[in-house]
Amino acid sequence: MNEQGMPPGLKGIVKSVDDAGQLHMIWENGRSLALVPGADRFHRLPEPQTEKGAGKETLPEETEEMER
């Protein structure tokens, strides 16, 4: 991604995927900009491990966290 204000290592959450396969993101810097598979370099971050029985309820997530 060659976009000003979008440095390597920036993290974001996938909000939707369009018909063209672009990943529409909400980035940690507040911007919303799509990733284009094959044109942009990115990877999915592993899901954080949660402690079972620690009073925290795990809810199914519809979003994926990505790092540029």
What does this structure look like?
With 68 residues, this protein is an all-beta fold. The chain contains no helices and five strands. Strand 2 and strand 3 form a beta hairpin. The chain is globular and about 40 Å long. The N and C termini lie close together (8 Å). The model has no long low-confidence stretch (mean pLDDT 84).
Molecular shape: globular
* Radius of gyration (Å): 14 Å
Alpha-beta content class: mainly beta
Low-confidence stretches are none
Features:
mainly beta; 68 residues; 5 strands; five-stranded antiparallel sheet
Brief summary:
This protein has no helices and 5 strands.
Question: Which helices and strands, and how do they pair?
Answer:
Elements: E1 11-17, E2 23-27, E3 32-35, E4 43-44, E5 65-67
Antiparallel strand pairs: 1-2, 1-5, 2-3, 4-5
